[in-house]
Write a structure and sequence with these properties.
The structure is a homodimer.
Chain A: H1 6-17, E1 31-35, E2 38-43, H2 45-51, E3 65-67, H3 75-92, E4 105-108, E5 118-121, E6 132-142, E7 148-155, E8 166-168, E9 170-173, H4 180-192, H5 196-199, E10 203-214, E11 217-229, E12 243-250, H6 251-257, H7 265-277, H8 289-296
Parallel strand pairs in A: 1-3, 6-11
Antiparallel strand pairs in A: 1-2, 4-5, 6-7, 6-9, 7-8, 7-12, 10-11
Helix pairs in contact in A: 1-8, 7-8
Chain lengths: 300, 300
């Protein structure tokens, strides 16, 4: 039994999800990943040593950075050259994350508001510390007497990442060139059988952003967060098999759960942001109120 | 006429309000202000040179820090010793911020969740880069047809700081030992004649936090933000003379105004946070959506 309070456990979760910027992280040993002089990611030391052999694609490390060679001067030439490297690494190297190859491309750019400079296989982004964007939906209900409940998904036990853990009612990554609301409607339909007529009522309310590192590399992530009040009689249903079950839980129970290991960590962050915005955490009694908020909204 | 878009002007506002962490700020020349080995602020170079003469209170600069002498080992001895220094500086030195002396004490502590180590006159906190906490209230109405409007205050022309600018319907600093909701109810009553029965319905929804510097020093600030839906027939009234007038404006007009110089900058930030939480900014069309959110919630 841990003697930590709920508040301390939540603070620890936020620290773990921002561990790339903690003392002792690999950050000082990472190389910047640059295209055309602009940083688009972080290359961890174990990846940098593998890239040496692809000298027609990547520069030698210089001033703490590895760059794509300038001859790769368009979106398509860059995307194809890096993809060829990744296909080769996938054959030759025991990189765990590449075993989860998805044939799904993410955009690579210095900031979200910049035009994409290339695209990259989703499963490889952590090797280059490339920012990943996604959308998460808080599906909730309010009873006639005003009591709030939230729908949570239990991830399938066969998911590559975080099998069997609690998740938001629907969520998904933003693939290259696809809009945020469009992705939301698609994920709601595919994962939870929420029809478009309901999903389109979801309200954009926040982003949650953080950077963590693990054995697969560096994960700077930004999730666009939507709230979706679901009709009381509506029940989400298992769609594409990414989810094994859905539960409707009183918000107090959800609050308890987010400080446990049963939650996929970034989904717990999305719920924490919901609790704060819906006045379910009291700044006069929660000593870490402001730490929670800054921990949820870190600059990438 | 500026050719900047609304988005760019809002981004510039957020950058100005976080200029202490920008390249070229005085940060690298500031000394840490420490009590008992813990940092509680930043001392700008022009202030550090004045503190040399108070060697019974402050240490010599060492390893980039100035400390209170260890013999000042309690809340009251520290508060009194620093207050005596400030009273002397107020007489002897042309420090603009001390002309705004308020006889209002703020708590000084490493983090909000820590016990206060001393208190300090509000007008002096920027000389020591001590964090300041406050509460801001978004007072808004929703018409029967669902149209949202917001009450804004116009600050009195005789206010020491930001005279004549637009402000939230009520706001105030958190004095030492006073609660957040308590301060909210008091400020609503004093500044806007909002009775406690209405003010108590305000909902805690966020913090907005930022650090800027100007000629008066360093301002790391955290505002606890509340939303208060006001009855359609209610009108705030000028109370203690800090405000000259109140306006009820359509939310579209408020949105326009927050990118102008007519708004007190931190109040514009509080309104921006409101617009995001109330889905009045669309992440599919606002390229700086995420930059807005991280700019509003910086770690202090």
């Amino acid at each position: 039994m841990s003697s930590c309070s709920w508040s301390e456990k939540v603070l620890q979760l936020l620290r773990r999800m921002n561990n790339f910027h903690s003392p002792g992280s690999s950050r000082t040993r990472c190389l910047r990943f640059e295209i055309d002089g602009a940083q688009v990611g972080w290359i961890p030391p174990h990846v940098a040593s593998l890239l040496n052999r692809y000298s027609t694609v990547f520069s030698e490390p210089r001033n703490g950075a590895v760059s794509l060679l300038p001859r790769l001067d368009s979106y398509s030439t860059r995307s194809e050259a890096v993809d060829a490297v990744l296909q080769n690494l996938r054959q030759e190297e025991p990189l765990g994350c590449l075993r989860g190859w998805r044939d799904e491309r993410y955009s690579v750019m210095p900031k979200y508001s910049d035009p994409p400079l290339m695209s990259m296989e989703r499963a490889a982004t952590s090797l280059f510390g490339v920012r990943r964007y996604g959308v998460h939906i808080n599906g909730y209900t309010v009873s006639d007497s005003g009591e709030m409940s939230m729908w949570l998904a239990r991830r399938s036990n066969t998911k590559q990442t975080y099998p069997g853990l609690l998740d938001n009612v629907a969520a998904g990554g933003l693939a290259a060139g696809v809009g945020i609301k469009h992705t939301l409607v698609k994920e709601c339909e595919e994962e939870a059988c929420i029809p478009a007529a309901i999903a389109e009522k979801a309200c954009p309310v926040a982003t949650v952003s953080y950077t963590y590192e693990d054995q697969d590399g560096v994960f700077p992530e930004c999730q666009f967060v939507f709230d979706l009040e679901l009709p009381l009689e509506f029940r989400p249903r298992v769609g594409d098999g990414e989810v094994q079950d859905f539960y409707l839980l009183p918000i107090e129970k959800v609050t308890e759960l987010l400080a446990t290991d049963d939650f996929k960590p970034n989904c717990a962050m999305v719920v924490l942001d919901f609790l704060i915005r819906h006045s379910l955490i009291d700044p006069d009694t929660e000593p870490f109120y402001q730490d929670f908020i800054t921990g949820l909204h870190q600059t990438l």
